[in-house]
Amino acid sequence: KKKDLPNQDAIAFHKLPGGSSALVMAVSDGHGSEKCPRSDIGSALAVNVAVKVFMDSWSLMKPKLDESEAVDRPSTLASIERHIRKDITKKLVENWISAVDEHLASVPFQAEHVRTNRLLAYGATLTIVFLCEHFSACMRLGDCEVLIVDHESKVWRIAPRSKEQVGEDTDSLCMPDAEKRFSVSFQGSDDVNLAGNQLYLICSDGYEKAFESNAGFEQSAIDFAKLVSTVKGHEIIEKDRKSTRLNSSHANISYAVFCLK
Predict the structure, then answer these.
(1) Which of 5, 47, 201, 212 qualifies as a cystine partner to 26, CB 3.0-4.6 A?
(2) Structure pTM?
(3) CA nearest to 27, candidates 213, 254, 259
(4) CA atoms of 200 and 150, how far apart (whole Å)
(5) 106-131: per-residue pLDDT in tens?
(6) Which of 179, 235, 190, 185 is nearest to 72 (CA)?
(7) Which residues fall within 8 angstroms of residue 237, CB to CB, at 6 or more apart?
(8) Distance between CA 251 and CA 6 in Å, rounded?
(9) Which residues sit opposite 9 in a β-bridge?
(10) What is the sign of the dihedral through the CA atoms of 28, 169, 139 and 227?
């Protein structure tokens, strides 16, 4: 608000087709600095690209999972994990760059930004959580966070902050080697009881910074889990979400909740 900047955060989510319970959720945080005058657009492009990439990839992954016998499932999941780590990370970055170039072609820089690095101008982080009955995958580039709450109200983080990051510095889609900077957490249904997870909280770093301690941050995820376990809780969150969307054009905090039943 002080800098009169638009909201830098974006979220997108989609239930994937094919009669399964597959879901994809993406959160992106634009950098919002003077060197990144279009990072609010960059974050919006990032989450839309993420959903599209996983929609296309799911059309290839689902038949393999459906056709594989139980005895072959581990090798099928290993193949999917390799595909996510190598191919999808690369495609996410390539498609984001293409989306940036398409936007820039339709809306050229003004005179004061003509010498700006085009990718840095749209710089943003990206965190994606993909869930289906056979596996979960979390892909994290930058300083967004993912908390998981199980049915015993235990909380743990997926893909913690890189030890190489110092202060407010963070990895970004605008970096030359962005596809290599993704941290990926992949868990098959044989490795962990996915049905035992009650809630996934995916949020930009601003949400965590709103708490005085890590304990308070984690407690918020537990509170969400308790809230969405009731019909009234769903209604409260939906009402709050709509109200926030209407009244927070300058807000710099994004969060999204997956509730698993």
Answers:
(1) 47
(2) 0.85
(3) 254
(4) 9
(5) 999 887 676 779 999 999 999 999 99
(6) 190
(7) 224, 227, 228, 257
(8) 8
(9) 29
(10) negative
